[in-house]
Every structure is written in C-alpha cells, then in structure tokens.
Amino acid sequence: MKQQILIIGAGFGGMWSALSAIRLLDQHQRLDIAVTLLAPQAELRVRPRFYETDLTTTVAPLGPLFDAVGVQFVQGYATRIDAQNRQVFYRSVSGEQSTLAYDRLILASGSQVARPPLAGIDRFAFDVDSLESAQKLEAHLQGLRHRPSSQARNTVVVVGGGFTGIETATEMPARLRAILGSQADIRVIIVDMGKQVGSVMGEQIATVIAEASDTLGVTWKLGSPVSMVDEQGVQLDNGERIEASTVVWTVGVKASALTQQIDGERDAFGRLYVDRNLKVLGQDAVYATGDTAYAAVDDLGNHALMTCQHAIALGRSSGNNAAADLLGVQPIPYSQPKYVTCLDLGAWGAVFTEGWERKVVLTGKEGKELKMQINTQWIYPPEAKRDIALAAADPLIPVVA
Ligand SMILES: Cc1cc2nc3c(=O)[nH]c(=O)nc-3n(C[C@H](O)[C@H](O)[C@H](O)COP(=O)(O)OP(=O)(O)OC[C@H]3O[C@@H](n4cnc5c(N)ncnc54)[C@H](O)[C@@H]3O)c2cc1C
C-alpha cells in the first residue's frame, strides 16, 4: 500500500503544498508515496481579488495542473479529523460520507471573515470573503439601478478600515458610478473604530490612504463601532445612524474551524502553533499551512500574517517538509523575512510598502502597475506543465509580494 500525504484545501497553501511535496518525492524517485488533495473544487479561488467588479477571472482551474504533476484530487468537504487514527472524514458532492487515511496531513483549509453576533449582520451585511459572497454583492449592486434614487440607495458603508475594507471602499466609487451613472450623488463611507484614517496600517501608509480617500470622495467615520445593521443602513454605538442600502462587512478573520479538531495551542485567530518545519506543535503527523498556521517568519519574533503572500511560501515549505518527514531526509525550515504590502486604492492607484513598519516605496500609477501584476500574474498557479510547475514549487524561492 502506498503511503499518503493528504492535503485539505486547494487555496494558496494547499496547492503549493501539493506541488512542493511532489517535487521532493520526484527528486527521490519515490513512486510509493501518493499526494492526495481534498477540496470542494479543483480550482484556486483568488480571494485577494474579490473586492473587484469582474469576478470571472478570479478562479483558476487546477485539474490540468494536478493531472500534469500527479496529484490525486478528491472532491469533497472535510468534516472531521481523527488525528489519533490518522484519518479524515469528508462529505462528497453527492452528500455521501467517506474517509481518507493519511501518513502525513497538511491542513490548508484557510480562513473566513469573522462576523460577530450583531443584530441584522447575517441578513443584511455583504462581504467579499468568498467567491459566492462577492458575486452576491455584485448582483446586489447591479440591482440598485432599478431602485428609485435615494440617499440610502446611493450609499455604501464599508465596515472596517483595514486592508480589505480600504480596497473594497476605494474601488466602490467607480463601481457605483458604472451602475448608477456618472452624475449620481454617491457616498462611500468607511466605518472604523480607529482614531485616524488608516491607523491600523501604520503611520506612513496612512497618509497615502488619507490622500487617496480624499481624492476619490471616500469618507471615514471614525471612533465608533457598528452596533446594528438593517435593510436601510447601520446604527453606530455612539447613536449615529447612516442610511445605506449596501453594507459590506470586512472586520475580523478567523482560521478554518478544522483547526479546532487538532489538539494544540492556537492564537487569537484560531491558527495552530507550528514549529519551523510547519508541523503542528505536539503532533507527529499533522502540518498546518497558509491561514491555519501561526508560524514564525524570522528569528526576530515576527509571524506570518493571514495573507496569500505568506500562504504561498508556507505552502512550498509544508509540502516539502511533510514529504521530507516520510522520506527521512532533512526538512527545510520555513523562513520569510521580507514582508511587503501592495494596497489597491481604486482609481487613485495603489501603494506599495516594504518592511513590517510599511515604508512607502511606490504610490499612484506605479503602485497600481505592480498591484495589477501581482493580482493577475504572480499569485496565479504555474503552467500545467510538470517541469515548470515543480520548479516553481522550490521552497527556497523567495516570495516578494
Ligand atoms: C478581499 C480579500 C483581499 C485580500 N487581499 C490580499 C492581498 O492583497 N495580499 C495578500 O497577500 N493576501 C490578501 N488576502 C488574504 C488571502 O486571500 C488569504 O490569506 C489566502 O487566501 C490564504 O490562503 P490559504 O490557502 O491559507 O486559504 P484559502 O485561500 O482560503 O483556501 C482555503 C482552501 O481550503 C478549502 N477548504 C476550506 N474548508 C474546507 C474543508 N472543510 N474541506 C476541504 N476543503 C476546505 C477551500 O475551499 C479552499 O480551497 C485577501 C483576502 C480577501 C478576502
């Protein structure tokens, strides 16, 4: 019987884990170890682009790539992990329950936006966290054109002034004008608990965010959280009310619930603590990667963020190291000391920063050109050709954006 490396999830972490595991097995000519990937779809859903209007190009098929390198794809949704007996229970598309056994498991099931238990949030707030929810928002925005003009119809409230909130809000004036007409009296408002515009992103970059917001007419309502959402808008904790037919929730993120089925320490986002080889602390056969892993990126105390920038490099390491474990060869410790940010700022452009303090390097049009390159090329899967795909999965390739 073949030994099994089982990967849960076909996102950035899962896809790169599969490729890097096969790369190492290939180098050792070990055909007796199989790599199986379990996910609802054999496609990479490019979540960093879900704030955009055109969602058709945000899904990259993975079937041909998996066939080219020999990943066995199982379509299904993992429901339970039995780490003691090394098996994963899953539900197939037709609803049948089945199990998959493993010798090494790589948990790459990602994350979701964390909606707090606020009145009206589940019924009335949109988000841009998944393909389905982004499509729902786009259909709703398109539907606004059929409603009579009113302040609520013309207003979008984005809750949260972090990375996702800023990208969603700064794109919104152009999206709304394309639907409601160039003369429509539109309002885009970011509601954020901070005291200053863009304060969670760092001082230097905040100045750029403020300038772009002003130019685009995106306003910030600072210092008070949202306490309630309804069909006609939001209520703030300080008693203020904003009339809006569209409310987009972007605050908070939590790691996939599957992390709770593994015994181990977790951080505030639910991510599993892992060692430098990305094996879950206290486990002998389970690795975590991407948004499910709380992993040190350097020796200075910095940790991976829940970003695809980190998920790509984490994936290349976890796959390699799970395979190395079975082969009995030296793993390659995960290391990603360089951290950059490229934040889209709609029609204003984008801002590119370097370092954990986010030192501004490029802005405006130049920043935008880089952002487009990252979003349409760099983070997409490699070509479905065996040699090219396996070469791209080398864990020592630095990820720079
Ligand atoms: C709007 C938005 C903008 C963003 N912008 C940026 C950006 O500019 N830069 C950046 O670096 N990052 C950005 N991110 C973050 C980035 O998208 C995530 O960090 C990244 O997707 C994490 O990759 P992952 O592989 O860990 O998880 P995911 O990409 O979430 O993939 C998880 C995979 O697991 C599968 N899965 C989940 N549950 C199960 C289950 N029970 N059984 C089987 N399969 C399962 C899913 O179907 C999916 O295939 C953004 C995210 C959003 C939502």
From TrEMBL:
Family indicated by similarity: Belongs to the NADH dehydrogenase family.
Top-level taxon of origin: Bacteria
Family annotation (SUPFAM superfamilies): FAD/NAD(P)-binding domain (SSF51905)
Keyword NAD: yes
Pfam families: Pyr_redox_2
Record domain FAD/NAD(P)-binding: where: 4-313
Protein name from the UniProt record: Pyridine nucleotide-disulfide oxidoreductase
Keywords, comma-separated and alphabetical: FAD, Flavoprotein, NAD, Oxidoreductase
